[in-house]
Amino acid sequence: MAFFYEWLAVLLCLAGVGWDKCCPHVAADEPTAAVSFKDSWQQAAPPLIADARRTSEQLAGLIEHWPLPDEAAAFDRQVIVMIDADLSTPAWLTAAAEPVWQRFVRLRRQRADLFFAQAVAALERPSGSKKPASATEAMRLLARVLRENPDHAQARAGLGFVENDGKWVWPNVARRLDRGQTYSSTEGWLSRGRRPGGTAQSLRADTNGPLPLSQALTFASDHWEIRSTAGLAAAADLAGRLEQTRLVWLQAFGGFAVEPVKLKQRLSGSRKPRPSSSFAA
């Protein structure tokens, strides 16, 4: 069943549908944004935005438009978020704006804690309650935690990440790294000792026109193994979109990826996310 929904999301997104339309609104078990979100933001944001405008209009705009559209009022579709690698200072930020950025980071960490509390609450509803425990709602909220604070360890584990050499990665990535594999943005995951370029596959990728099916190229991403007659560049582009789609799927249909009991175990640290088999494309 999970495979079906992943492909459903893939087909919608690859057809050129925007993120908001790719995942129609799914009624939440309870309002995503408690009053505390709106109140805390209305108190903290105006002076922060005003100070940002004195040093960086770009930062001011980022802060002003940071809240998600369903936080203040009902929204007719589900919001999907992307997750940054960390909270490091953006390259475009000037030194004068650094103090404001750090205040923004502190505010985001506070918001992350609020989202995390909601995710835990979605999992801990009593069996006899009107609304059952929902791993789907919890997974969606955990993604929001990581949008605010990518370093939130419990949310990372809950959504399915593991820590490897000080970085948060998917279990499939950790397994490949432990095997000595390296990743090339142009050729995908390469076995131990292989380097990008110079192989028969990379040389064939430079030819014009589609390749014969018997000479199809293989591109391995974190969760997909792609066989392509269109060349490695096309395969790499498809791999990137498929990996993004998987993150969309986890937020829209997270209950198909993990049961509430197992998700609670992830959050407590008693169960680690495990690698999965690669999907074929």
What does this entry look like structurally?
This protein has a domain at 25-161 and 256-274. The chain is 48% helix and 8% strand. It contains eleven helices and seven strands. It has helices at residues 2-14, 19-22, 35-53, 57-64, 98-123, 135-148, 153-159, 171-178, 200-204, 232-252, 260-268, and strands spanning 162-164, 167-169, 182-184, 188-190, 217-220, 224-228, 279-280. Residues 1-35 have low confidence and may be disordered.
The sequence of SSEs as H and E is HHHHHHHEEHEEHEEHHE
Beta fraction? 5-15%
Distance between the termini: 17 Å
Percent helix = 40-55%
Average pLDDT confidence is 86
Q: How many helices does DSSP assign?
A: 11
Oligomer: single chain
- pLDDT < 50 stretches: 1-35
Number of strands: 7
Work out the radius of gyration.
21 Å
The largest pleated sheet is described as: 3 strands, mixed
Shape: globular
Question: How do the strands line up in the largest sheet?
Answer: 5-6-7
Structural class: mainly alpha
